[in-house]
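The instructor's notes for this session suggest beginning with a concrete chain rather than abstract definitions. Hand out the sequence below and ask the class to guess, before any prediction is shown, which regions might be ordered.
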Amino acid sequence: MKIDERGTDTTQDNNERIPDTTQDNNERMPGATQDNNERMPGATQDNNERVPDTTQETSGCGTSVGSAHGMANKSGHNFYAFIARMKYINRWVLMRNTLSENIQEHSLQVAIIAHALALINNIYFGGDVDANKAAVLGMFHDSDEIITGDLPTPVKYFNPGIREAYRVVEGSAKETLLGMLPEGLEPQYRKIFYQDENEYIWKIVKAADTLSAYIKCVEEMKAGNSEFSAASDSIMKKLKVLCLPEVDFFMKEFLGGFKLSLDEFGI
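After discussion, reveal the predicted structure:
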């Protein structure tokens, strides 16, 4: 027993002095335990009822644009997805590189240079070459190597038999790629993949290909990699015997810049 200063017994149970607070919240807070369904209409409705089915998206025009969940389109046309794999195919595989180069990077540079050569031919030498077409041909000129890989030059040109066998493999690779296109697009890319090697525009593209290879040698040697020294000399000899005025113009006006450091550009 506890006695206060007045002698009063203070052992009464707190239940007699403090209001009972054990009442369920339901009695004190109306609706507190109501299921969210009653307080938030539609909250527990199945997502299928509240969220539109997006398993097949449509464009703004109402046409189907494929799966919204990124499912692999194994039965569709995979040409562009396969072309995107150019970035996985490295060049110069038998040589030590300070910076590796893949065929996607190389193809873009060839496209840029081929476009430039065509413009130079038209503007300075009275030509009539489709510069845009030259750029596109450069863009796709090594696309078959996604399948064949980049065969080193010493192997590719070891003897006529190997070169001819490789041409067959290249043709097969091109047909495989073309088979990934829908019927309407296939003929357009066939005209890009197969070119008459005697046409002047194709000579420009091949010259751009050689210039790109030479630029790679310049960049490697600038980085102190003497591995590319012999290749540089060999490729320069090829450029000099091409006898294409636009190539000579490009070499005179633009090649020197590839030997400069960033600070030397003076920008």
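Then share the key points. The first helix runs from residue 14 to 17. The CA atoms of residues 106 and 165 lie 24 Å apart.
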